[in-house]
Design a protein that fits this description.
Length: 586
């Protein structure tokens, strides 16, 4: 074939391949345009998970009549004008590609009424300019997505997964724009409405976090706000973190934004994970909503067509900022209230050059306690504590006390001292019990006196109800309450009624992880571990001697109770002989 310039339509379809992957990407681009136009209200309507129709309407600045057709041209943008602008971008859009790409793969109708004009106009899918009826703002309708490129349509994952992606996309944007009201209407039914949150940015985000991620995270979240100079530029980090006691089965609920732009950046995620490191049980993930604000000239947002990645001029500096700030914030909250893990106290030197200012409200939520230095010093002494894997029954001795409300000390007939991590041990016992019951048919449940109502998104509710029968076998029973909430009516008996909502959300994470080919039953062990881990209430709790002894006796009766589900040891033993050596008696 001779070399020819591609016709516009084809060039746009090719561009669309990068920008418009699925219905959720249409919504992302359209809502970003609304936000760039300073909208206060954004309404998104979809039919058939966006495949039949997507409508985004806003009350932003609008587009003047004589620019409407231009907006649909490739490389037409009002957001940058020179190369210099490219390095100081503070809008979401700048490539001038979204609208023409959509118009190339779907039937797009663009209607708008500009702030300064008395009437609205629209461009039809056929390119006709016509009068329209619309209040100030813009309405874009994208119908029959991918009708023009059927191959792409085939790659979509099915309605449920597409609407989940839509919801996730919108929620992410809603978190970063708490002062904008968002509405989602799916197949003519309103799925959710998020009213504009009030107050300064961080408290407005806090309010939005409650609307989007649930009341529990919102009420326990640890606020963080740090400003630091990185390579000569002021960088700001603010947002909310889950305390070490609240965690999810996936990293799904880690939201990070750079200059308001949602990013999925490996290095930022690693900084967060490392900062939590030993504070979370293995395999568990923190929740976070973090905003990084940098001068536009030190970040390149033009490295990814959908702009999901960014490149920092000083990536290490940013990494260090996040790591340091998160550790600092968690350190202040390390000694938790009723059901916390107690981590070893280790004094990080405070990072230099930081101006840390911790907002105060959440501090009230935590009941501070003095760290137990005594217990820590004892455990970390050089090496006299050895792990024994060959304890005989009745091997764990008689409890004589408790250290740091966390470790049981027991004395055995032969003089050996046994240390038991009560939380890890209890978790293991619960797990073994759940496994036993499940193996015998089903996990016995305990009805709740008052059902616990949990607000969820429509998809989360559907997902849970879709697995209701399987979950019943796990001892978790629920009923539909409204399209966006469920009533938990019974929980596994061994777990008790401590916190049914958290249990439900943990199990939900496991469901999110299921691929179309796996069933809940193929992940039994995982779900049981989730449940047992969730029920980690025994660290940092004072136990009576009979309670301690009962735990020790249960451990003796339970195979594999010497390590917890995460493979950490539950038990250490020091023989009399070791003690004698320690004191130079031998
Ligand atoms: P970009 O956002 O990269 O500039 P788009 O193709 O998304 O490119 O949009 C082209 C132009 O159309 C924008 O630069 C903007 O001027 C205008 N536009 C699009 N959507 C809206 C909207 N909702 N409100 C006001 N103007 C809009
Ligand atoms: Mg755009």
């Amino acid at each position: 074939m001779p070399i020819k310039l591609l016709p516009d339509t084809l060039a746009n379809q090719i561009a669309a391949g990068e920008v418009i992957e699925r219905p959720a990407s249409v919504i992302k681009e359209l809502v970003e345009n609304s936000l760039d136009a300073n909208a206060r209200n954004v309404r998104v309507e979809v039919a058939d998970a966006g495949l039949a129709k997507i409508v985004v309407q806003d009350d932003g600045a609008g587009i003047p009549r004589d620019e409407l057709k231009l907006a649909l041209q490739r490389h037409a943008t009002s957001k940058i004008a020179s190369t210099k602008d490219l390095f100081t971008i503070n809008t979401f859009g700048f490539r001038g590609e979204a609208l023409p790409s959509m118009a190339a793969v779907a039937r797009l109708t663009l209607s708008s009424r500009h702030a300064t004009l008395p009437e609205a106009w629209k461009v039809t899918p056929e390119g006709q300019l016509q009068p329209a009826a619309l209040p100030q703002g813009t309405r874009i309708e994208v119908a029959d997505l991918f009708y023009a490129t059927p191959a792409r349509r085939k790659f979509l994952k099915g309605a449920r997964s597409e609407s989940q992606a839509i919801e996730q996309t919108l929620q992410t944007m809603a978190l970063a724009h708490p002062n904008v009201a968002f509405t989602l209407v799916e197949d003519n039914a309103e799925s959710w409405h998020l009213p504009a949150a009030q107050g300064d940015f961080l408290s407005a985000v806090g309010e939005r976090v409650g609307q989007v991620l649930g009341a529990e995270f919102a009420s326990l979240a640890v606020p963080v706000r740090v400003e630091k100079e990185v390579a000569g530029h002021m960088v700001q980090l603010e947002g909310y973190l889950s305390p070490p006691t609240l965690h999810g089965g996936t990293a799904r609920r880690q939201y990070m934004f750079v200059n308001g732009r949602p990013v999925k950046d490996k290095s930022l995620q690693t900084a967060l994970r490392n900062a939590y490191a030993d504070r979370l049980p293995a395999g568990r993930h923190a929740m976070a909503v973090l905003f990084i604000t940098v001068p536009p000239e030190i970040v390149d947002v033009n490295v990814h067509p959908a702009k999901a990645e960014v490149r920092f001029r000083d990536a290490n500096g940013i990494f260090g900022l996040i790591y340091g700030a998160v550790r600092m914030a968690l350190q202040d909250y390390r000694v938790t209230g009723l059901q916390g893990y107690r981590e070893p106290v280790q004094q990080d030197p405070p990072p230099q050059n930081h101006t840390f200012s911790m907002p105060t409200p959440a501090q009230k939520l935590w009941k501070g306690e003095e760290p137990h230095h005594q217990g820590e010093a004892f455990l970390s002494s050089s090496n006299p504590v050895i792990l024994s894997s060959s304890l005989e029954t009745p091997s764990l001795g008689a409890a004589i006390g408790q250290i740091a409300n966390t470790y049981i000390v027991a004395e055995r007939a032969d003089g050996a001292m046994i240390l038991v991590d009560q939380h890890a041990a209890h978790e293991r016992l619960v797990y073994e019990e759940l496994k036993h019951q499940f193996g015998a048919g089903r996990i016995s449940s305990q009805a709740l006196l008052l059902p616990v109502i949990v607000s969820l998104s429509k998809h989360e509710a559907d997902l849970l109800l879709g697995h209701a029968e399987a979950l019943q076998q796990f001892g978790l029973e629920m009923e539909a309450h409204s399209p966006t909430s469920l009533a938990i009516v019974a929980v596994p008996q061994v777990l008790g009624a401590a916190n049914p909502e958290r249990l439900l959300r943990d199990v939900l994470d496991d469901l999110h992880d299921l691929s179309p080919r796996t069933t809940l039953h193929s992940k039994v062990e995982h779900v049981l571990a989730t449940m047992a881990c969730h029920h980690s209430i025994r660290a940092n709790r004072r136990l009576s001697l009979p309670e301690m002894n009962s735990l020790l006796r249960q451990m003796e009766a339970t195979p594999a109770s010497l390590t917890c589900n995460h493979g950490r040891p539950t038990t250490h033993l020091m023989t009399l002989e070791t003690m004698e050596r320690l004191f130079a008696r031998r």
